[in-house]
Design goal:
9 strands; two-stranded antiparallel sheet; 352 residues; five-stranded mixed sheet; alpha/beta
Length: 352
């Protein structure tokens, strides 16, 4: 089989002087650009590492190590090496070639291919390679500018993995997105926190405690409003809240889990208009007819009370997939608001 055509990356007026061969695919690039953006290449593309080849000053080739990972080594040291080990990553060699291509594109500050922008696995591979080749700052900039909404849909599937990825990238926007989803999932499934990178667990627990306290406070306030309505000596708007809760229970909203987003969303969307017969009961249990004008006032007051209480809890603070309120298609609270000073890295660092 014929060797694939070399992939050439060159800046205006530049000339490729470096050949990097990754699993049979040659990449021709400029050592000056590689050294500028990558700590790995700053270390290894030195005068001592130059080859005697007439075509390139530097020649590196991929080699799989005994642990199943791979890296670039000078071609002269690999020629006589034993047969390569099997790659022991959750990717194929083709995936690694594509990931390295994306890495070089990032080093040249070029937009990633559309196919990779829509593939979450490609982004994960890119960040792993950027970490290895000490090129996270430029890759962070490129990912932030290029990542697609389609790719971001995978964050909710693996928000814990994305949280670590965003932490490595030091991407505030991507980290916040994954963090909100992680806290929301941890509220419903506490064991989620155990899968979080140990460097981030304390931060997740801190905001999970805030969310739990917030939900408990709102639940307590709902009970207070219901009690206030039931004990009111005259007609009271809060008397309209209990029927909405009873309706949610009867319809099996969230099953028996009365502290889930769908339960509160149901209360937020519920109608607080008095029943068609327009009767409420006063403190003594006597049926009292509610004239239409007064019924409208009671409905408006009950709706306003519920909105004021529940809307902040139903806020959707996601950075990429945000919206005014959490919709019925979300199973998690997304109201967490991560403070800037809680981002777990030094924002003044420019190289990491």
């Amino acid at each position: 089989m014929a060797a694939p055509k070399p992939i050439v990356l060159v800046s205006p007026g530049g000339t490729p002087d470096t050949c990097l061969t990754v699993f049979g695919q040659e990449f021709h690039a400029e050592s000056a650009v590689l050294r500028l953006q990558s700590g790995f290449f700053r270390t290894f593309l030195t005068a001592e590492a130059k080859t005697s080849s007439s075509n390139f000053q530097y020649e590196y080739i991929s080699k799989v190590d005994k642990d199943g990972t791979w890296g670039l080594q000078p071609k002269s040291t690999v020629n006589d090496a034993p047969a390569p080990q099997d790659l022991m990553l959750n990717t194929t060699k083709e995936d690694e070639v594509r990931g390295f291509d994306n890495l070089l594109r990032a080093l040249y500050a070029r937009r990633l291919p559309y196919s990779s922008l829509y593939d979450y696995t490609d982004i994960v591979t890119l960040v792993r390679l950027a970490d290895y080749y000490i090129a996270l700052p430029i890759v962070s900039t490129i990912v932030d500018a290029s990542i697609s909404s389609e790719c971001l849909k995978n964050i909710s599937v693996d928000c814990v993995g994305t949280l670590k990825l965003a932490f490595n990238l030091r991407s505030p926007k991507l980290f916040t997105e994954a963090f909100i989803l992680t806290v929301g999932q941890a509220y419903r499934e506490p064991d989620v926190v155990l899968a979080v990178d140990t460097r981030l667990q304390t931060l997740v627990y801190k905001y999970l405690a805030r969310l739990t306290a917030n939900v408990s406070s709102i639940s307590h306030e709902l009970h207070r409003l219901i009690g206030e309505g039931l004990n009111a000596p005259l007609l009271h708007a809060n008397q309209l809240i209990l029927p909405a809760i009873q309706s949610a229970v009867q319809q099996g909203v969230c099953g028996t889990r009365a502290k889930e987003p769908c339960f509160y969303r149901y209360l937020l969307d519920a109608s607080y208009k008095p029943q068609d017969v327009q009767y409420l009961r006063n403190r003594k249990g006597t049926a009292v007819f509610v004239p239409p004008p007064q019924a409208a006032d009671l409905e408006a007051e009950a709706t306003s009370t519920i909105s004021r209480l529940i809307k902040p809890l139903m806020a959707n603070n996601l950075q990429y997939q945000g919206g005014e309120l959490v919709g019925k298609d979300w199973d998690y609270f997304l109201c967490t608001r991560l403070d800037d000073w809680d981002l777990p890295w030094d924002p003044t660092e420019t190289d990491w």
